[in-house]
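Practice problem: predict the structure.
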Amino acid sequence: MSETPVPIPSGSVPAGTPAWSSADAAQWLQTRPANWARPMWSVLALLVTVAWAIAVEPEPPCSDAVPCGPDWGGMVQMGLAVGLLYWLARLPELTLIAAPALAAVVAWGELPGADSMSLAANVAVIAALAFGWAAARERLATRSRQRRLTERAAGTGHPLPGPVGPLTRGTLPLAAALILCAVAAGAVLLGLRGIHADEQRAARAVRTTAKVISHGEESVQLRTDNARRITVDSYYPEDYGVGDRVTVLEDGSWRRLVAEPYDAFGWQLLVLATALPGLSLLTVGVLARRRAAALRRAPVPALRVLECTDHEGRTWVYAADDSSGRTPLFACFFAATLPDGDGSASRIDFDDEEEEDPAVDTRLHEAVMLGAPYDGAELLLVTTDRDGHPIVIRTAGRVRLPRTGKDPRLDPHALMAARSDIAEPRHQAQADHIATTLTPTSRPLRWGPGSVARTAGLAFTAGVAAGTAYFTHSLVTDGFGWEILPLLGLLMWINLAAVLLNWRVTADSTGLWLAGAWTVRHVPWERLRAAQYTAEGSVEIRLSDGSTWHLTGLGEPRLERRLRLRPSYVRMAEEVTTLRLHPDLRPTDRSSPRDHGLPLGPVLLLLIALTTAAALFV
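Answer:
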């Protein structure tokens, strides 16, 4: 790390922007949550007390007087308890709501009439929830204190420097949350429909008294008062001893025990499996969107700082006078926003400064930080690239405070690894040969799937749709069963189907536009390190920061060599390598957004979701 930071042009620093001194930064850094508020203690306390409460909770056997009906209250308790194990650690905002809600449910549903041991365990659960709530409140209060310290050090606020692109933060979590919550709502409706249908059938059924003569794994054998022998399905056959008398409801061939109404456990399990991640993603999306929107509202605190990027692509921020980089304040992944040909903004990764050399620039750079840093904050940095040109970057992830002893990954071994992927002589010779077959052109170049790949993609899509239809039909007719869980793996084929149908690589004057299954990514020419078709049949495009863009499972290299085939993805990897090594062959025009390709993953996922919804509710 350089002792002399790379300077930032004076015109890029807003007038009157103060430096964040080491004294002010140290005060900000010392403003941390108390040790007792560490999430680990809250999670352990809740985990131990909930396990204790479950272990000592009495389980009365099913009977005609107290049937074992669907326990929606228990589902809510279990869902909140499981969710809080994650929310206590990662989402203190949601903890402030969920912890009191679970405490109220426990106090209302478990404390009245409980024996001494169960009472003590449930009181301990409430105490653990109160402790976790206080810890979450302390962490949020620490964020407020850090914001106030930053605002006091910055003095007056400043507007953001120029356009910052569209507000996209939180979009993907919100979309995923809406899908998961819709599935959870559908599962609740189907569970309630099953309960209602069971109640209607039980109302018109004939009640028969019988004696238990034996029981199996999932049924009991009975002898009625008129000497008939019948077998009835049972969720808890071990609860009925031989000689016990039970009441059976009969309606034609339909039978069930009065003590065991329709159990919506399968639907409840599906509700938990979708509602918990859906609620978490919804909170994450809303918070990210609110923080990004708040950053856009001028004025915002502005401070002069130092920053550097390590070999993991993480940006570390230091006080303005910490020219030796001894005390990192916080770290975060940042991204740059570049305008495309139509003036809109395109998101690209900015894990290190742009450079021709594939080695990562780990020098300290002067920068201006806009926004107040805290755990999870949204920030902008006005900094410089390798050549000292100003650039604006924004947070692409949550701001994280470094753990004790955590330093940037700037070791020489990582530097050597970053330089190890320079093209070998044989790659240079191959590129020179291909260069003789290419004609310089101004128009952008495009590569995409052929007819065989698109046919395979359609076949995979049809297979996923058929499997999903079967899965949905099984849920509706037979309820949730573990034997059909492997069918959920079919959804993993959506990625491959989307790639085979519509992958695209576009080369223009600015670099490569890479369209995969879910996103379109832009890679400037100066950040491109290599394009390779691997022995596993995948395409890898490696960048100067060490990251890789993949197209997985496109081909079969041995079969292609035997048949002397040169598919479009092989040709793309070879020609992109040639364009990288021969800049004079690159297109001179910019491509339009329409040429960048359409990721079909979200489209196929929405299609499958609509198909599932239609099968559930039609």
